[in-house]
Amino acid sequence: MSVRIILLCEDQQLLCFLSRFLKRRGWGSRDIHGMNAPPGVGSAEQWVRETYPGILQALRSKGSSVVLLVGTDADTLSVVDRIAILDQACRNKNIPSRLAQDPVIMVVPKRNIETWLAYLRGESVNEVDNYPRYRGESDCRKDVKALDDMCRKQQLRQPAPPSLQATCGEYRKMPARLK
């Protein structure tokens, strides 16, 4: 089995959302390898931060066509600040931080994925308030469809969360042969 996309996510909800989105965009289950913080390891953000540099280094050494999607919540930080923390985690391990040519896409919802899910259900949202968690990870099917429909039209419903707009910009970096 050839893994073509690695999903490195804080939690099962973000992993489920991204996996479903990729499948709607034509990827098969065999193309996607997902990982999220195991229960009981402490901070899921910390787990992503500590795991990311090693995966980035491994991708570089293989020179393969694998794409890494890193899913981590911005929480109360800005998206830029959360990505800077991931870059610093690399430098702390003597690994160069993400380069423009690295096949890495940052997916950083501000507060958390529930902000995007509420937006995709048609609600007006901001990136300060906490939105309720879903009861089950698989309940995001309609939300994924809504995002896919907007992507196909190449336009998010306005006003769109800035963190989702930033992720759309990141997604555009995916190599054309892998879209």
Overview of this protein structure:
By secondary structure, the protein is an alpha/beta fold. The protein has a single domain, classed as Rossmann fold. Helix content is 43%, strand content 11%. It is built from 6 helices and 4 strands; from the N terminus they run E-H-E-H-E-H-E-H-H-H. The chain has a 4-stranded parallel sheet with strand order 2-1-3-4, with helices on both faces. Helix 1 packs across helix 5 (141-153) and helix 2 packs across helix 3. The protein is globular, with a radius of gyration of 15 Å. The model has no long low-confidence stretch (mean pLDDT 90).
Kindly report the spatial arrangement of strands forming the biggest sheet: 2-1-3-4
Structural class: alpha/beta
Helix count from the secondary structure assignment: 6
CATH class: Alpha Beta
The CATH topology turns out to be Rossmann fold
| Uncertain regions spanning at least 5 consecutive residues | none
* Sequence of secondary-structure elements: EHEHEHEHHH
Shape: globular
Instruction: Please tally the β strands and state the result.
Output: 4
Q: What portion of residues belong to β-strands? A: 5-15%
Beginning-to-end CA distance, first to last residue: 19 Å
Calculate the mean pLDDT score and round it.
Answer: 90
How many domains comprise the coordinates? 1
Tell me about the largest β-sheet.
4 strands, parallel
| CATH architect. name | 3-Layer(aba) Sandwich
Tell me roughly what share of residues is in helical segments.
40-55%
Radius of gyration: 15 Å
